[in-house]
Amino acid sequence: MINKVLVANRGEIAIRIFRACFELGIQTVAVYSQEDEGSVHRFKADESYRLSSDKKAVAAYLDIETIIQVAKESGADAIHPGYGFLSENTEFARRCEEEGIKFIGPSYEVLDMFGDKVKAREAAKKANIPLIPGSDGPVNSLEEVIAFGNEAGYPIIIKAALGGGGRGMRVVRSEDEVAEQYRMAVSEATKAFGSGEAYVEKYVEGPKHIEVQVIADEQGNTMHLWERDCSVQRRHQKVVEVAPTVNMSMELRNRICNSARDFLDSVDYANAGTVEFLLDGEDFYFIEVNPRVQVEHTITEQITGVDIVQTQIRIAAGETLEEIGLPKQEDLPLNGFAIQCRVTTEDPNNNFFPDTGKINTYRSPGGFGVRLDAGNGFQNTVVSPYFDSMIAKLITYGTTFEDTVAKMDRSLREYRVRGVKNNIPFLRNVVNHPVFQNGTANTVFIDNTPELFN
Ligand code: ADP
Q1: Selection from 18, 9, 5 nearest residue 76 by Cα
Q2: pLDDT, tens only, 224-264
Q3: Closest CA relative to residue 157, chosen from 233, 165, 445, 166
Q4: ipTM
Q5: How confident is the model over 268-285, as pLDDT tens digits?
Q6: C-alpha 318 to ligand 1 mean position (Å)
Q7: CB 78 within 8 A of CB 313
Q8: What region holds the Biotin carboxylation domain (predicted)?
Q9: Which of 162, 278, 287 is the pocket-test mutation for ligand 1 (most atoms within 8 Å of CB)?
Q10: If residue 175 lies in a helix (H) or strand (E), which one and from where to where?
Q11: Residue 292 annotated among the catalytic residues of the structure
């Protein structure tokens, strides 16, 4: 049983979790940093506490001990970490357990394995999941990188072991560039992730990014909830996501989805997780596991009817997939299509630099086939420079991909955000582009399509 959930997060995902708790009859606790005094998420919970440490903005949401203290004082018996912040923090999960607070996510042993991409690769290899050719474990010197490049052939990609969010990766196209790129990769990784450990992989040209949503209970039952196509990216960060993949055969879909499920089953995974792959033609290769709820979980919910956040909470409360009422794997629905656009206050005409300030006009889209998961996308809210620039996720769903695209275009046209610059016109260009509409967009589609910026 879980009676009260503290959400160690902000913005749209905090609100998403509060909504799930409300529907389950569970009490909710919000936390917020000083800078988030006007942030909407704090008004959407039953109780709300300012994180009264001397830590500012992002650092306040990373302050493990203060958050645990609030949980204890408010009587929360579980913590949902959302995504980002402490969601993949082994130490946080361990401290929660020590204090008798249920961490809504996988065990800290699993977090530890998947927080480090080198360890994750090793686990995937053990489970016979296809891997991109890469170094065996971390690379420790420039010579090792060069040796790999010569053996595997260029281009190659250097990745920070602890990297995430599209950061900490460098593509190297020839031996001349290796020294400089390796130096930059290590220095960036040290700064951003506190460790310069890196490994190298063959760089796949123009793949699709396909990821499988998996859900597992604490009794060892594991199932997949089909896949998502998250190929539309800018600088390795997702911008528009689609479920399921357009024009993918059921044979290939089943192969990818089953291998993701079997992999997480083999490591005794519990709760929600995503296995990410690159798809090159009919071949797929493991890249990483995200052991948490993802930004784009929404589109999977739309095509399967499964509420992923409610399921996470009920799994943490000890229920089995069957008790939760999930269908059997072979009966899992695959209904129509869903698209998600990440609406941000980034300015596409200024290198996507995030804009800040007051939203003085806000009119949200609605109607048949539209879902809006908004964070600080509301009239008169102030978008601060301290946090992620995403203000809302706009999701549309329909029976065919064509209809779902039409609904997205229509919704983006209805959407009015004034006072801060935003990427809505850019998103319209993406969903109206023939490459997106015929389902062939790959991970370099945005980078290689200058007309999207018109
Ligand atoms: P992060 O943890 O930062 O999200 P990922 O390993 O998931 O990093 O990779 C993010 C994106 O980077 C992928 O979706 C893909 O576009 C690109 N990428 C990663 N590895 C490769 C590779 N070996 N070849 C080509 N592209 C890659």
Answers
A1: 5
A2: 999 999 999 999 999 999 999 999 999 999 999 999 999 99
A3: 166
A4: 0.97
A5: 999 999 999 999 999 999
A6: 34
A7: yes
A8: 1-451
A9: 287
A10: helix 175-193
A11: yes
